[in-house]
Every structure is written in C-alpha cells, then in structure tokens.
Amino acid sequence: MTAMTTSAGTSTATGTSPAAHPNTAPKTAPNTDPGADPGADTDTAVTAAPAVAAVAAAAASGASGAGGGSRGRRRRRRGLAPGKPWPASRLAGPLLLIALWAVASAAGRLDTGAIPAPWTVLETGVHLWTDGTLTTDVLTSLERAGYGFAIGLIAGVTLALVSGLTRTGEALIDGTVQLNRAIPTLGLIPLFILWLGIGETFKIAIIAIVVYIPIYLNTHAALSGIDHRFVELAEVQGLSKVRFVRQVVIPGALPGFFVGLRLGVTGSWLGLVVLEQINATSGLGYMMFQAQNYGQSDVILVGLLIYGVFGLISDSAVRLIERRVLSWRRTLSN
After folding, report:
1. Is 30 left (phi over 0), alpha (psi -120 to 50) or beta?
2. Is-contact 238 176, C-beta < 8 A?
3. Tens of pLDDT, residues 49-74
4. Which of 21, 53, 127, 167 is deepest in the core (most CB within 10 A)?
C-alpha cells in the first residue's frame, strides 16, 4: 500500500514538473527571506506579473488619453477666441468699398452724374481746399461739434452719477431723461429756434442733447449693474463715500461710459449734418446744401466723405483711450 502511494506520489510529482508542461510560467528569483514560505515566491510572482503589466498598461493609456484630452481641450479653447487683431483692420472695410467704387466707375457701371468716380471727388476736394472754402467749412463744423460734444459729455456724466448713486436723483432725473429720449431730437429744432434764436446757440444745444442721452443711458446702466457684493465689501472695509466712488463705482462704470462716449461722438456728427443746413453761412452741411441746389454731386460726396473720416477718427481715438484705461480687463478684443 505504501509502495503504491509512493509510486503514485512520484508519478504525480513527475507529471507536474515544468518539463511536462511547457506553458507553465517560469519561476522568478527565489525569496531571500529565510522565514518566508519557499512556495510563496513562485505563486506571488506568477500571479502579480500579469496584474502589474495590466496596471502599467492602463496607466499609460490613461496618461496618453488625459494628455490627448487636455491638448484637445486646449486646442478647442484656443479655437473659440477670434484670434489676434489685424493691424489697421478697421480700414479694411472702407478701403474695400472705395476699391469696388473705383472698379465700378472704371467699368462704366455707375452714372457719373449721380455718383462721380473717386478720382473726380478727390480732384474736387483738392480744388475746394486750395480755394480755402473747404478749410473754413471744416473748421466751423469742428467748432460746433466740439462745443456741443463737450456740453453733452459733462451733462451726461453728471446726471448719470447723480441718478445712479442716489434714489432722489434717480426719481427726479431718470424719468425726465427717458421722456427726452422718446422725443425725436431733431423735432425740437423749431422750438429751440423760438427759444434761442436762429444763430449758433440752438445748433450747439441740439448737438449737446444728441450727445448726452447715450452717455447718460450707458453710464447709468453700468452704475446700476455694479454687483451689490462690492458695496457690502466696501462697507465691511470701512470705505468712505469718496473712496467708494473712486475705487468701486468709477472702475465699474467705465466700460458702459466708453460705449456711451462712442455713441455720443457719432451722434454729434449726425446732428451736425442737419443743423448746418438751417440758416448757416458756413460749415460742411451748408456746403452740401448749396451743392444740392446746383446739382454738384461731387461736392456732396466730398462733404460726406469728410464727415465719415471725422467719425472714424474720433471713434478710433475713443477706442484707443478705452483700451489704455481698461487695460486690466481680459476681453475678446484684447
């Protein structure tokens, strides 16, 4: 019986040898710990090797996936922004229009009596400037627009601050300004002529009204939109009224103020076109009105182009100041 068992045990041991089963994983280096189980080395190595390989492969895959995902997100994030601004990009549109105008005129697609060629308009402008007529008209228009814009700017900012910072001012001012905004400004011309006469005063007053309304509306909206948490923080910090206005109110209202300022600058030129055709003896509007009576479309186009150039230059100047003053903001434009 014992012999059979020994023989069976020998047979079993022989059957389980590595030579009989080539697919069995080879043993790793033996465990050097004298108290450890000799068989534990082989079992742990055989079991742990595939697990470690799987974990390493998963980690590598996750790292590459995370890196690829973050790069993809960065790529997508970079693609959402409009990109760097072009140098002198705002001139591209006007120059394209002038180029199309020149091409259509050279091809004979335009009626020269109604829309003269660009070189004809340029020649007329040089002639008017040489005669001194255009110089006088430009200076007169600049003076009217400057006075009206200055008065409108001061009135708009003052009324917005009083109305935006006090409930009494809001009750007395805001409704009145909204009523004035609903009335067509050019419709006030006959009434202002009766009140102020037919001279320069009523022209400057109308320009001031055209300017102050957008400045007031945008500045007041910016003041009203300041987060109340900033007010609470200023109260906790113990800021005085003057410091609160200087450190919280003015920086918070500047973006809206500059929007209103741009609209006000444009409005001053728009109002000037109409006002200079009423009992005026000089100015770009007067020059255009006289050219209309004589059918001089080239002179009218000279006046319109000068108005457009003045509007573009003034708007660009306001945008430049805005970019410098609000350089702390991170926006799509910068």
Report:
1. beta
2. no
3. 444 444 444 444 554 554 555 555 55
4. 127
